[in-house]
Amino acid sequence: MRYAVVTDVHGDAARLRDVMEQVGREGVDHVISLGDLFECKIGKSSVDAFRYRAATEVFDADPELAELVDGAFVLRGNQEERIVSLVPDSDLPRWTHRLLDAPLERRTGFATYCHGHHLPWKEVEPGMWSPAEASFSGRVLVHGHHHRSAVHRLGPDLSGPRTTVPRFGEPFELEAGARYVVNVGSVTEPAPGRGPSPAWAVVDEAAATVTYHCPGRT
Fold this sequence. Notes:
The chain is an alpha/beta fold. It has one domain (2-213): Purple Acid Phosphatase, chain A, domain 2 (4-Layer Sandwich), CATH 3.60.21.10. Helices cover 14% and strands 24% of the residues. Helix 2 links the parallel strand 2 (30-33) and strand 3. The model has no long low-confidence stretch (mean pLDDT 93).
């Protein structure tokens, strides 16, 4: 199977539209959205003080987002969980339910796919965070959440993960006998210090490769 993996759209339908046009040229079998498709306007630190009045105060329910991931395997992220915690179910548009109440992860024999916000994280390098010590099924953990593309090799002979930032368009081979944590990165512009570029990826499970792509590049 060849999966196109997108994550951390944060409500940017225009950027996701560009990505899906690229995906259509890659001949993948399925698309996986790893969560944070929506953007919650209420920050984590403000949740307790927030007084709900309308769903529009919490997030922009853009139906184009649902159209763009129609047929994809959609997983939920921390943004979706925060939105559900703040907006009464009766105020949520019906079409958002599939996206907001999506599963936490998807597993294949090769990999575990998830947003990653529920996993234990550690700073493996200055400014580079990873769930490198998380338990997962398969050879590879593919995640988002931290907007910085990277591949971490978790070989048993290593004292810590070996980090690589692959080049766009070049398949990165996942060595037999090693386990990996793959941070796809963000479809949107990354936060300062988390760059250098927005990204999405193709995970080819049969070939055991991951290929990063930059939105807007052919």
